[in-house]
Design a protein that fits this description.
Structural class: alpha+beta
Shape: elongated
Largest sheet: 4 strands, antiparallel
Helix content: 25-40%
Strand order of the largest sheet: 2-10-7-8
Number of strands: 21
Number of helices: 14
Strand content: 15-25%
Distance between the termini: 30 Å
């Protein structure tokens, strides 16, 4: 079987001018040797050269917000693992397959668990970057990796990964087209991030209780003045304790910190409630649940309003509660208030010691319900909630646009990188 017939088995029928090969045949691939790290690296000394670790490689780019450095003379003394413009770097332990392109000389060096891929004369770095980020190549890496508690990919196996490459002019054109799409995706991501920051700032200004002396940056809608009342959670909310029991429920839910309520079948691939399902709380639309587990986004746990489902079963370890009267409490106002993290300082005072064996904080329900919250007039609650709901609508629209761009680029990569669609050069 010749090289192109092997490529056809992997990628379908190839154009006659395309070459099927292994990445090891077309690139120099290496990693940081153990002795290089143990004898020469000392991050506490620091230096001018960034040691590229796996956590620095994200979404096809370098992320240098969290770095370790080494002296320039150390990097210069280890030329095999030194990184140059045009090299690619890829994590090969744990999360395998994140790739980025080095675009500067004399700034980066390999760190442990990161491979260096130096393209030869038959393949352009920019083209190889897109090729390695493609779904087909990532799938092959998954097959070649050793499946253990911590997946790993040996350099030998990486070198055997098959790729197909067109002539250099076609590579260059394909890379240019896909880079244009990358720019469109990046612009959409920046807009989404900007909208999130705008919402965050608006929440800060709208949800901060007015003070007698006024507060810088505080915003009130026209027609509203005066102070907000301060009440305890127990004054305007009541606990929800209804059990699922023998009732049939369509949705068994968990709370994910950055998403909210999710179907356990989607999150875990199955319902994990087991025999405990009857003891789950039957939560209804418009009611809240507090997940006492910590996360980066919500270090003291998170509270979400059930909106996406008419009802659902939630773990009885959550604190579930609902408004005593919607004439006093607008649930969507408090959805945003809880989302803002405004309760965190009070929660921190009540959380005792460390997390339990199940990962949840030790906090008594009575303590939770004694937390103080602001109570604006109901009309002002409604006005604030409507403004923030509008922000959420913009975020959802932009997120859909971003997802559509990403899917379109993915489809275009599939067609361009296999020769199904040819480009004019």
């Amino acid at each position: 079987m010749n090289k192109n017939s092997v490529g056809s088995a992997y990628y379908g029928n190839l154009p006659s001018s395309w070459e099927s090969s292994t990445i090891g045949d077309l690139c120099f691939i290496t990693k940081l040797a153990g002795y290089e790290y143990t004898e020469h690296f000392n991050y506490s000394v620091g230096g001018e050269i960034i040691a590229v670790r796996a956590l620095n490689i994200k979404n096809g780019k370098l992320d240098i917000t969290n770095i370790h450095t080494i002296p320039r003379d150390v990097s210069d003394s280890l030329p095999r693992s030194k990184l140059f413009a045009g090299d690619l770097v890829m994590g090969y332990v744990g999360t395998i397959g994140d790739v980025a392109l080095i675009q500067e000389n004399n700034r980066f060096h390999l760190a442990p668990n990161v491979a260096k891929i130096s393209p030869g004369e038959k393949i352009l770095p920019e083209f190889l970057l897109h090729l390695m980020l493609s779904e087909r190549f990532q799938f092959e890496l998954d097959i070649l990796a050793t499946k253990t508690s911590q997946p790993a990919l040996s350099m030998g196996n990486l070198r055997t990964a098959r790729i197909v490459v067109p002539p250099l002019p076609e590579q260059r054109k394909i890379a240019e087209i896909l880079s244009t799409w990358d720019e469109a995706v990046a612009a959409s991501e920046r807009l989404l991030a900007s909208l999130r920051e705008r919402k965050k700032g608006l929440m800060q200004r709208l949800l901060t209780p007015p003070s007698a002396a006024g507060q810088a940056g505080q915003v009130r809608f026209a027609g509203f003045d005066g102070m907000w009342r301060e009440v305890h959670l127990r004054d305007v909310f009541q606990r929800v304790t209804r059990k699922v029991g023998d009732n049939r429920v369509e949705y068994v839910l968990s709370i994910t910190a950055t998403i909210g309520f999710v179907d356990q079948r989607e999150k875990f691939g199955k319902v994990i409630a087991g025999k405990n399902l009857g003891n789950y709380v039957l939560l209804q639309k418009g009611e809240f649940a507090y997940n006492k587990g910590n996360s980066n986004a919500y270090p003291q746990g998170c509270i979400y309003l059930l909106e996406e489902f008419e009802e659902g079963a939630v773990p009885n370890v959550y604190f579930s509660f609902t408004a005593k009267s919607t004439e006093v409490v607008h649930p969507h106002f408090y959805k945003f208030y809880f989302e803002s993290g405004a309760l965190n300082p009070q929660l921190q005072k009540y959380i005792s010691s460390s997390a339990r064996a199940d990962g949840l904080f030790n906090i008594a329900f009575d303590d939770f319900f004694s937390i103080k919250i602001p109570l604006p007039p109901i009309k002002e609650q409604e006005k604030i909630a409507a403004a923030l709901e509008s922000c959420d609508g913009e975020l959802r629209t932009q997120a859909k646009k971003l997802k559509a761009l990403q899917q379109q680029k993915k489809g275009l990569m599939q067609r361009l990188l296999t020769g199904a669609v040819r480009v004019k050069v």
